[in-house]
Amino acid sequence: MNTFLTYLVIVGMLVFVGLPSLIGYARDRAIDRGLREAEHRDAERAGARTVTRSGPPPACVRQNRQKSASRSTEPSTAT
């Protein structure tokens, strides 16, 4: 009986810790869905055929990637 209660407490703690993140994830998905639907409605009103996001990333994202990738690494001086 003691082992069962231990497992029950552990599962309860995992639910207590994980439930807020799952609720937040579900809320974010609902918000994203609503934004996509609104964007699609606006595109239909404007007469556009489709709205896609599969193009290249914006210039600011490309610049950040290039900056971080172009940093030179210095050799370690630890002996």
Report the order of strands and helices.
Answer: HH
Class by SSE composition: mainly alpha
Shape: flat
Number of strands: 0
- Round the Cα radius of gyration to an integer and report it: 24 Å
Average of per-residue pLDDT values: 79
Query: How is the main sheet built?
Result: none
What's this entry about, in short?
This protein is mainly α.
Feature tags:
single chain; 79 residues; mainly alpha; 71% helix; flat
Describe the structure in your own words:
This protein is mostly helical and 79 residues long. Helix content is 71%, strand content 0%. The longest helix is centred in the N-terminal third of the chain and has 45 residues, at 2-46. The radius of gyration is 24 Å and the shape is flat. The termini are far apart. The mean pLDDT is 79.
How do the strands and helices of this protein lay out in sequence?
Elements: H1 2-46, H2 59-69
